[in-house]
Amino acid sequence: MTAPAGLAVYCDVVLLDAAWQRALPGVERLVRRAARAALVGARRSGRRSLTIALADDRRVRALNARDRKKDKPTNVLSYPSGERAFLGDIVLARQTVWREAREQAKTAADHVSHLVVHGTLHLVGYDHDNDADADRMEALERRVLARLGIADPY
Questions:
Q1: Backbone phi, then psi, for 126, in 5-degree steps?
Q2: For the purposes of burial, counting CB atoms within 10 Å of the CB of 10, is it exposed (0-12), middle (13-18) or buried (19 or more)?
Q3: What fold does the segment set 7-147 form as a domain?
Q4: What letter does residue 16 receive in the DSSP assignment?
Q5: pLDDT digits (tens, 9 = 90+) for 94-113
Q6: 154 close to 138: Cβ distance less than 8 angstroms
Q7: Distance CA 37, CA 86 (A)
Q8: Is 22 exposed, middle or buried (0-12, 13-18, 19+ CB in 10 A)?
Q9: What are phi and psi of 81, to 5 degrees?
Q10: Looking at CB atoms within 10 Å, which of 23, 32, 41, 66 has the fewest?
């Protein structure tokens, strides 16, 4: 997917767990594509950058305990920067993501793409704190994923 005129996205991918590459070859390209698609779908024009860290459950559990007071791993964490150009950071937990994909009968690639879209939308201000916000965010996720050729995850 090419970014439309006026949208320049730089997505830095940090590999904190080498097992991501073994389990899903081309994962860096996959997450960049999903992040760009989310920004296109959210109609965020201009120069934007974000970082996506591909971690393991141990690291995400520590972050989740520190930042959200939940001592367990989670699939994705988003850290909005509050800045216009640098959107923030997204962290994914490999073992949790793979387990969820199996449980939900999804491919790992589709589930990873969905979580990156979800995390990126959090970085630009979308949330699911109430039913109306959740409906709005999920509808946008569905549209973005459909453009990527990914079935409705809900």
A1: -80, 150
A2: middle
A3: Collagenase (Catalytic Domain) (3.40.390)
A4: S
A5: 999 999 999 999 999 999 99
A6: yes
A7: 17
A8: exposed
A9: -85, -25
A10: 66
Helix (H, G, I), strand (E, B) or coil at 52: strand
The answer to whether the CB of 76 falls within 8 A of the CB of 38 is no
Cite the DSSP H helix spans in the chain: 19-23, 27-41, 57-68, 94-103, 108-123, 131-147
Residue pointed to by tokens 């979580």: 115
15 closest CA partner among 34, 1, 29: 29
40-58: pLDDT as tens digits:
999 886 789 999 999 999 9
Quote the pLDDT of residue 53: 98
State the residue for tokens 């860096």: 28
Q: Are 46 and 7 in contact (CB under 8 A)?
A: yes
3-class SS of residue 107: coil
Supply the Cα-derived Rg of the chain in whole angstroms: 15
Domain residue ranges of the chain, discontinuous segments joined by +: 7-147
